Amino acid sequence: MHPVRLIRVDDKTGEVVRSQSGLCIACNPGESGAMVSTIRKNNPLLQFEGYLNQSETNKKIIRDVFSKGDSCFVSGDLLYWDRLGYVYFKDRTGDTFRWKGENVSTTEVEAILHPERGVADATVYGVTVPGMLMVAKVAPEWLPSSGTTTTKQMTTNSSRGWVAA
Q: Of 32, 33, 95, 153, which cross-links 80 as Cys (Cβ 3.0–4.6 Å)?
């Protein structure tokens, strides 16, 4: 397994937070951060081959993480750890969120909502529900198709067979 660490990220932008020296800042226990894994080209177990698309690969690599010249793979997961070293999942960055142990793609849910269900446009995002350990529900913002009398409740009811509860 790759050695992983958690680094601070800005809660609003998701951007990596760096110290005055330009290096990333490791998270303290109880503080959520982005999971990164060290890349070492001369070690087959710590290499990162990347994706077929080089620009997608470059998006997942950050440099000058813990020392000048090093690099890490950014997983896209936000985690936190306790003072005993146990690690907990908090969220997934980007256009997915976790629900019942599964990654849910917001764009796939949006595609299910329209156009067959009378929705002209929808934006789907996960919301945190107090008392839940993870993002728990889909909260669509939508615009009905012209000429329809579709309501949010009708859309929700007709989508139940397509979206996991």
A: 32
Q: Which two tokens mark 100?
A: 């019942």
As a whole number of angstroms, the distance between CA 6 and CA 114 comes to 38
pTM of this structure: 0.60
pLDDT digits (tens, 9 = 90+) for 122-156: 667 666 667 665 554 555 555 555 665 555 555 55
Rounded mean pLDDT of the chain?
76
Number of domains in the chain: 2
Domain match, 14 and 80 both: yes
Mark whether 8 and 84 lie in a shared domain. yes
Residue 165 lies in a domain: no
Contacts of 163 by beta carbon, 8 Å cutoff, 6+ apart: 109, 112, 138
For residue 89, which of 99, 26, 50 has the smallest C-alpha distance? 99
**Tokens matching residue 20:** 């005055």
- Residues 109, 147, single domain; the answer is yes
